[in-house]
Write a structure and sequence with these properties.
The structure is a homodimer.
Chain A: H1 4-8, E1 29-34, E2 39-44, E3 49-54, E4 64-67, E5 73-77, E6 82-87, E7 92-98, E8 102-108, E9 114-121, E10 123-129, E11 135-140, E12 145-151, E13 155-160, E14 165-170, E15 177-183, E16 188-193, E17 199-204, E18 210-214, E19 223-225, E20 248-250, E21 253-257, E22 263-268, E23 274-279, E24 284-289, E25 295-300, E26 308-312, E27 318-322, E28 328-333, E29 339-344, E30 349-354, E31 360-365, E32 369-374
Antiparallel strand pairs in A: 1-2, 1-32, 2-3, 4-5, 5-6, 6-7, 8-9, 9-10, 10-11, 12-13, 13-14, 14-15, 16-17, 17-18, 18-19, 20-21, 21-22, 22-23, 24-25, 25-26, 26-27, 28-29, 29-30, 30-31
């Protein structure tokens, strides 16, 4: 039942797959990145099913995507600089532009009008009309841009790896207004915005520490903390840089992946002091809060990436260790937290777990799946 | 352009109104309660437009509604005990049951399978299959039930006005498991769940104070605070009981409407101490946090209900006073906070404001509008 419709229905360009009445809603859909084949798998969260495959998206290694406010269109950011607009209802590519040589994610403005892409080669940020993908603004940078996030008021923030400078761009007027927030430090590798759009957090690679900017402040200043955070001579090799987008914010704390260590760090949000560390199975990659719960779920870098651990943010203790499959690359929660969907690249499967029983309740075949993205992301800031 | 399609398109039962391709997504839709006429106005958030009117919903005074996870269906809780399921795509009523004599709101389970209704007459909670509206469970109570909320794990919490007891019902197994959380105090009038599903807060009318239950605890115990909260002999008459669903949670604080006073109370979430009060234009009714911002927006009880004030949760100062229209009953934010939609009952209008400039950017005609509900609510806990 889960495989057959995939191919049978691929023949149709209309949404007849949706049901007897030929109608479909978009609130419970999602896309899975199939990195090896450059394709996307359209999934139905309620039905625990794959309903279509969309092909021809280019190089999807390290790809991410974001959604339009009506949850109809996805904007896919490929590693090859491709920006592709996909229609979830017709299940087709409706626009595509190869806008740079090497890009690393993007974001959509709070009003859904603009899509911004963060580029490595050449460095900088390009901003596109979300409707047509026409270029609206081209902001050069003195190097690779990282950590691009949407900020309320049709704004975006980003940081430059080479110079360490962080920027805030306002695209609400006729001309973009770009201001320098300040210097974050040496070689920032990723950045993230808290879900209240209050704090822009930037992880450093060239020195130890994390730099925070208060975006609610009229004149934000860099504030460095966790100055023992990062790689040291005694550490193990870093198999994979952690994703800061995986930072969890729970119980007044940040839960951070230690770089190069088998450890999770808990930082008090108000004092910016480390309050606890948790010994983990491997080097954490994604640390994601289970919505409406005290728990964070963690996956790990190769070669220990067949395990997922669950940690209680109150006790900072590991409360469950699961082995969902080989090469777990990503986890995505149902927006109200009832389920988590886990991609096992080397088992070619998506595993679905009930978050309360922590038991597997379903699985879906997928080709080397990596990122999983539900449409509910359309309604969240900073993703 | 905004009025004409309303009547022309009411002739169609198919979603041809959606656009040239006959398809529509549901992520940016919403419903406005038209209380005097027992109708719902279907609105398109992106287009700033009303697209259809759905009639025949009975008594919609004090009505609220919730959405299915796919954002296709609304469950409307009418004051007359009517529970109505509305399809946003076909714009029709697909099921309706008059399940009690007098009801006061409801909720949908985190997995979207069950809809629970809180009843006054006879008191108790009834639980229905979300697909068919068939009765699944009938939980009697020793009086009127108030403050019904969804709790993760296919659970609901509620409180009884007459006895003061609070309950947690687990509907994940074959038989419902109902446990008493404890006694909240004398005559609880409303309750609310924090967005992380951590704290169930119950406002008292028969005595001063607010009672909190920690729902993350295995055995939650009642914890009373703000014991000077409530009506005193010196206070003005209470023109309208504030809605606790309007309690805002921001910057580690609860922002509460003072009962019977022209005041907003700020309570530290960790210590449960009052940290500030803000003098306001009138008696607050809804106190709603603007997403991804430091601001809360407040409307007021009659006769001072033509004003909306904006308060900064850092300084606790009023930063803006707006006069959107006569009899402002409700405010609903776009999920990422770019706009707020405000219902002006006596002007028969919905006013749309840009939250950054705080200027009006649109309006929509509606018949005596009260509650505004965007489909993004489908993805939030405790609504």
């Amino acid at each position: 039942m889960r495989i057959a419709p995939l191919f049978a229905l691929a023949l149709f360009a209309t949404p007849l797959w949706a049901g007897a009445d030929g109608l479909t809603a978009t609130g419970d859909l999602g896309l899975v990145v199939e990195r090896a084949t450059g394709s996307l798998l359209l999934i139905d969260r309620s039905d625990h099913a794959a309903v279509a495959r969309i092909e021809g998206l280019g190089d999807l290694s390290h790809a991410s995507l974001t959604y339009s406010p009506d949850e109809r269109f996805a904007y896919v950011f490929g590693r090859d600089g491709g920006l592709t607009k996909v229609d979830l209802l017709t299940r087709t590519i409706v626009a595509r532009t190869v806008q740079a040589g090497n890009s690393i994610g993007g974001a959509i403005s709070d009003d859904g009008k603009l899509v911004a892409v963060s580029n490595y080669e050449p460095g900088g940020v390009k901003v596109f009309d979300a409707e047509t993908l026409a270029l609206v603004a081209d902001i050069p940078a003195e190097g690779k841009t990282i950590g691009l996030v949407d900020v309320p008021g049709r704004r975006f923030a980003w940081t430059v790896w080479d110079s360490g400078d962080a920027f805030l761009g306002d695209f609400s007027g006729t001309e973009p207004q770009i201001v320098t927030l300040g210097n974050a430090g040496k070689n920032p590798f990723d950045a993230v915005l808290t879900d209240d759009a209050h704090t822009y957090l930037i992880g450093l690679f060239g020195e130890k520490g994390v730099t925070a900017f208060d975006l609610w402040d009229e004149s934000p200043a860099p504030e460095k903390f966790l100055t023992d955070y990062g790689k040291t001579g005694e550490d193990m090799p870093v198999y994979k840089m952690p994703h800061l987008q995986g930072w969890a914010f729970t119980e007044g704390q940040y839960a951070l992946p230690a770089v190069g260590r088998h450890e999770l760090l808990w930082v008090d949000r108000a004092s910016q002091k480390t309050v606890a560390t948790t010994a983990m199975h491997g080097q954490p990659v994604f640390v994601i809060a289970q919505p409406a719960s005290p728990f964070v779920w963690v996956n790990f870098a190769t070669p220990l990436n067949d395990v997922v651990q669950v940690v209680d943010s109150r006790s900072h203790e590991v409360v469950a260790t699961l082995t969902p499959g080989k090469a777990v690359l990503h986890m995505e929660f149902a927006p109200r937290g009832a389920e988590v969907w886990i991609s096992s690249r080397d088992d070619n499967k998506i595993l679905i777990y009930d978050t309360r029983t922590r038991e597997k309740i379903g699985e879906i075949a997928a080709q080397a799946p990596s990122g999983i993205f539900f449409t509910a992301r359309a309604h969240r800031t900073g993703l």
